[in-house]
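We emphasize that the prediction below concerns an isolated chain of 473 residues; any contacts that depend on oligomerization or on bound cofactors are therefore not represented. The input was used exactly as deposited, without trimming of termini.
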Amino acid sequence: MKTIIKNKQAFSDKDNLILLCNKKSDLSAFSISKDELNYIQKKQKEGKEIITINQYSRLVFVVNPKLDNEVNKHLEDVRLLGDKLQVNLKDEDSVMIIDVKGNQTEVLAIAEGMALANYTFTSRKTDPKPNKLRTLYLCKNTSENDTEELQNLVDAVYLTRDLINEPFSHMTAKDLAEAAVNSGNKNGVNTTVFNKKKIETLKMGGLLAVNKGSIDEPTFTIMEYKPKNATNKQPIILVGKGIVYDTGGLSLKPTANSMDLMKTDMGGAGTVIGAMQAISANKLDKYVIALVPATDNRPSGNAYAPGDVITMHDGTTVEVLNTDAEGRLVLADALSFAKKYNPELVIDLATLTGAAAAAIGHYGIVSMHDGSENEHLELKKAGDITHERLAEMPFWSDYDELIKSDVADIKNLGGPAGGAITAGKFLAHFVDFPWIHLDIAGPTFIKAKYGYRGKGATGMGVRLLYQFIKNKT
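Result of the prediction step, given as a token string:
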């Protein structure tokens, strides 16, 4: 169910209220009794950030965010207050967030945390029971533009979560492509989907090899958003790994429970589709393209096998040592295809390696780049603002030696050391433009609630990409 965020100026004594204030704020206009005011003042002195008043006909929450000199940390703390408020309001129909202290940034952060926390995935339940909380009203001073921007951003994160949460039975490569088309049609994104015949014509050997074990055909989706007022002539390109289900192929995943969540291996694709929706819905003045190579990776009598040598889109030959290192193969074809656009910058996102998840957990995104220091710094700043933080890995030339092959140009596995980095080095072979690689294996899908990101698909990466592209000069 969609969470609606909208402006509303008037309120009544029956409206649930969130009052953003400080100790000096005047609360006399909100029908709060003397005893309630005394209780509020007592709790404020104790440093309580959320003070709950149950008036039976409505709930009133007096919110006093603690100050933090670090601006980005403070914003995240306020979003997390929104998450806590949502828990208390999920069975209510609506709530009004009122700025009593004059801090619209905090109002928007509370609304963002609440809206993102309010997401539920119920589309496959016969008796769906989403949270009842439907509408967040922003009262006083919030501009319509800010409210609309936040609504579009939350909708985009919801879309990404929906795509990643969908089981493979309902999210094949074709389904993923159709989702991209449907999203693009809403906001003027020109979307093209290549079928298997076209992919064969383009000689995308990586994507075709991974698809050999499947009964479903692969797709390659291009989403192009080019507004007339775009400030960049060369596009920014987002590439998302679209492995809609991953068994590991003939190198069948060996560990217990390792395939249970492999529907999420298209997390990179879901993230860039969501980011494109946010960018286009909010009409950013940037020329942006998304590329989504998609297939499942299954074993069969015709599946590609360890020891095979395949020829990629750009002519590179690759020795396949492990068919479970398939994501880098489909991404490599997309990266070499991106050269035709002469891009200003390419960012790829992928649930690429367990090594990345093991290195930093679900708390951030592993990043690396091939010399794009300034672009990476700006992306890191965007990550700090959105709390979708980057952990940069070394990208020394020493690692290049680990992907050299005796029988082909390169091999798709680098050995036991530096697994996330050697995966990035494999991708770097296909790049001759400014490029950043984001391994989102850790935060894409989590088994326990993580603040407003919830449980299951988090949508992490959408807000990061949106913030980066919005601020890009």
